[in-house]
Fold:
Amino acid sequence: MEMFDLLLSHFGPQNWWPARTELEVMIGAILTQNTNWTNVEKAISNLKNKDLVSLDRLVSLSIGDLAKVIRPAGYYNIKAKRLKNLVDFIFDRYDGNLESLLQEETDLLRKGLLSVKGVGPETADSIILYAAKRPLFVVDTYTHRILSRHAMVGEDATYYDLQGLFMDHLPEDAPLFNEFHALIVLTGKNFCRKKPLCEDCPLNQWGPQDNMNDMRWVKESRS
DNA sequence: CACCAGGCAAGTA
DNA sequence: TACTTGCATGGT
Structure:
């Protein structure tokens, strides 16, 4: 059985990213760095209450004031700087037009995002997949934990080892990457916290013996 | 009380 | 290059 189908049939479609606009995706991507999503929701709720989910409003807001608003997300001082860095980048390079940034060719988009202090591989790829809707697989700690526990990669596998593994064996399909990553995060939240295999985990029967020789992670009908 | 959460950059050697 | 550390709230 293939990993994606195991997770999809167990959890059902997740319809990520949990945000209403592209800007909200970007803000969430920064705020959720090493942070529980429920805390991020509180911070985004604060931003919405002050009508700050807006590039024009954010660019004229001080870092100190922004930090106060996003406080529940944790690391609020550094995240306020990181958000401002990203907003400033959009104004400096794209005249404050988010669409212009997101329409950039994928490689240039990624290079640009990574040039912003505070935007690393996962944050950049989350924005590219969930805001720009390009087929780039997003890797996170859950991805690493689950695949290493199931002996699909070594413990020392890098971000790009994992991203390459998925992208080498999946069709370039943004909706598939979208759903797959969301399902992996959900699996990581609910299972696989401590033990390699947990009771009732949908991946209990999934492992290298099924996948090392046959790397189809989705049903052929999808590809 | 301890531990963890949808990372990243900066410092050290 | 290869480690290590700081950043911080809120839930379990």
